[in-house]
Amino acid sequence: MFTIKHFLTLLVVLSGLVVWAGLTSSNEIRFELNDMPGNWFRNTNGPVAGSGSLGIGTPGVRVKFGMDSDTVHTMTSLLFPKGAQNMPFDTDAQKGSAEVELTTPGLYVFVCQVHPFMLGTVIVDDPATEGLDLGDNVTLANGITVPTSSDLATRLLRGFLVLTEPGNWQNFASGKPWHINYPNVNVRTDSGVVNLAEVLTARYGNDITLPALLTPSQQGVGEVWVNTQFELTANKKKPGAATAVNATDWQVSRKVFLQMNNPHNMWTDRAQNLIFATEWFSSRLTIFDRRSGQSVDRVSVGDAPAHVMTRVDTDQLHVSINGSNDRNSVVELSPLGRNVERRIDIGRPGPHGHWMGHDGGTMVTPNVFTGDSTIFDFARDGIRNIVPTGGPEAHPIATGMMPDSSKYYVANFLDSTITVIETATGNILKTINLLQNYDPVSGQITGPVGALPIQTPVSPDGIAMVTANILTDTITIINTKTDELVAALPCAAGCHGVQFGAKKGGGYYAHVSSQSANVLQVVDIDPNGDGNPADAALVGRVLLTPGANTAMDDTITAHSGMGGQGVLGVPVVYNGWVQKLPQEWKDQLTVKQRDPLK
Questions:
Q1: Together in a domain, 113 and 232
Q2: Do 285 and 319 touch, CB atoms closer than 8 A?
Q3: How far apart are CA 458 and CA 63, in angstroms?
Q4: Could you tell me if residue 329 is inside a domain?
Q5: Of all helices (H) and strands (E), which one includes residue 18?
Q6: In terms of domains, do 471 and 579 share one?
Q7: Between the chain's N and C termini, which has fewer beta carbons within 10 Å?
Q8: Which CATH number covers residue 89?
Q9: Model confidence pLDDT, tens digit, residues 424-462
Q10: What is the three-state SS of 459-472?
Q11: Is 204 exposed, middle or buried (0-12, 13-18, 19+ CB in 10 A)?
Q12: Are 225 and 275 in contact (CB under 8 A)?
C-alpha cells in the first residue's frame, strides 16, 4: 500500500532539493527547537532561501540541536540517504541537546515525534556534483517508484510550503486572494528541466479567491470553543488562545489567553462551568471559568499534555501525556481538576488523542511511539488489550468511539488509514484506506480522499465518523454501519480538529478547525435526517478573528485566529455525558439529543 509515510518522504526530498541551489554550505548547523509557530526547528544562523528550518552543509558537517522550549521534544531521523553513517538517529523525548555528524551527501530530515509538524532539514552537498537534478524517479521505502513529475510529488510540495510558512496561510479576514510563495527555481525531472513555480501554479493555481464566509442557516446550541494555538499577543511570550464562538449568532464572543503555552485541546466539567485546556508545549493543564475567562488553576501534569476528557461516572479528568517516556502516561485528576490523584499505567509511552467510554468503564489511547492502541478497563483497573494499528511508522494519533462503546476508530497519521477495533475483545474489524480513490502519478481522484488524518470523533447518534485530514485539506465522512468512506468535503488549509455539537431543533453539527487558516467549518452530518451521512454538507465557514464585542484578556499582535486545533462543543452532547447535563442545558435539546441511543 502506498502510505502517507512514503508520501512524506517524497515531499521532503523535493522540498529540500529545490531550495538550496547557489547557497553557501557550512561545516556546522545549529537547530533550536522552540515553541513558536512556523519554524519549530529554527536554524540559528537565520533563514536559508526563505526557510528558517533548512541548513546546508558539506560532508562531515556537525548538526547540533538545542532547546528553547517549555516541554520535551525528540530529535528523530525521518529520512536519510541509503547507507548513511550514524543513521538512523533518534533521542528520547527530552529538553536536552544532541548532535550528529553527517558524512554521506544527500537529504536528512529530522522530526519531533511528540509534535509531528516540527521538521528540520539538512542538505549535505557534495561540491563536486551539480545540484537540482531530481532524476527521473524516486524509489520509496516499500520499493514503489514514482516519477518526479507526478501529481503526488508536486501536490505534497505545495502542501509542505503552505503548512510550514505562516506567510502562506489562508487569511479569510484580509479580503485578499490567497497567495503562496512558490520557489522560483529550475529543477530537472523525468519530463526535463522545468520551473517549479510555473508547474505548481499551472497545476494548482495561485492568487486564489478564498471561498466566502458562510453563516449556518440553522442555529447551533451553546458555544463552540477552538484552540487558536498560534495567536501571538502583547503580554505573553508563548502563543495560543481558547476562542469561543456563540453557536446562536456564530460570532466570536470571547478569547482567553492567560499564560497558556500552545493550548491544544479542551474539555469541560459536568456542570459545563469550567474549561480544561492542555498546554501541549508545556507541562500544565490550565483551568478557567467558561463565562468570565478568569483563571482558576494551572496544574502540573507532565510534559506535552495533549488531550483531556472527563470520565462520565465520576467526573474525574484524564489527560494524555504525549511527551512521557514511560508507561504511566495518562494522568487522572479529581473532579474539577483540583489535584492529581494518580498516573495510570497504559503499557506504552506517549499517547495522544484518547477517548473515554460512555459509561466510564473504558479508556482507549493511540500510542504514537509504538504504533498501537491501549484499551484500559476501569472495572479491573488494568489493561484489557494493546492492539497493533500499523506499527511505529503509522503514528496513531487520535481515537473516536461509538456511543455504546462497542467499537472504536484509530487515525493512523503517517499511514493515512483508520483502524477499526472491537472494544471488548481488541479484535481488528477493518482497516480503512483513506487514499483508496487516489492515483499518485496522474492525480486522478475517483471518490472521497483523505491524507494525514488527525482528529476523528464519532457523532453522538453513532451514524458517522468525521475526520480532519491535514494534507489533503478534506473532511472525510465514514458511515459507521458499513465502515465505508462515503464522502469528503473541502476544508481550509491545515485541517486538524473535530468535535460535535447539537443543532437547534435536532441533529448534530461537526465543528472542524484548521491550523493554517483562521476559520471554523461547520458540517451538517445528516441534512435530511435519514440516518445516512453520505449527504453530509459544509454549511458554515466562521471567522475566528475577534469582533468589536469580543471579550479578551490580551491584545493580538500576529496570526489572528490562526492555529485552529482542539475543538469543544458546550454543552457536551455525547452519549453518557449528555444525560448528566444541568437542566438548563437539557432544556435546549430535543428528546432525541438528550438520549441519542434511545
A1: no
A2: yes
A3: 44
A4: yes
A5: none
A6: yes
A7: C
A8: 2.60.40.420
A9: 999 999 999 999 998 877 888 899 999 889 999 999 999
A10: CCCCCEEEEEECCC
A11: middle
A12: yes
Residues 412, 522 within the same domain: yes
C-alpha cell belonging to residue 440: 499518485
Does the pTM surpass 0.90? The reply is: yes
Q: In whole angstroms, give the CA distance from residue 467 to residue 164.
A: 22
Q: Is 185 inside a domain boundary?
A: no
Pair 250, 366 in one domain: yes
Domain boundary among 107, 131, 155: 131
Tens digits of residue pLDDT in 54-109: 778 888 999 999 999 999 999 988 777 777 889 888 999 999 999 999 998 777 77
Question: What total of structural domains would you count in the chain?
Answer: 2
Residue 472 structural domain: 223-594
Same domain for 265 and 119, yes or no, is: no
In the chain, the amino acid numbered 258 is L
**Rounded Cα distance, 418 and 402, in Å:** 14
Distance (Å, whole) CA 180 – CA 16: 17
CB 225 within 8 A of CB 568: yes
Give the span between the Cα atoms of 102 and 27, in whole angstroms: 10
Characterize the bridge pairing of strands 54-68 and 119-124: parallel
Query: Are 269 and 289 contacting, i.e. CB atoms less than 8 angstroms apart?
Result: no
- Whether residue 360 is predicted with pLDDT greater than 90 in this model: the reply is yes
| Residue 5 φ then ψ, to 5° | -60, -45
Helix H, strand E, coil C: the string for 137-203 is: EEECCCCCEEECCCHHHHHHHHHHHHHHCHHHCECCCCCCCECCCCCCCEEEECCEEEEHHHHHHHH
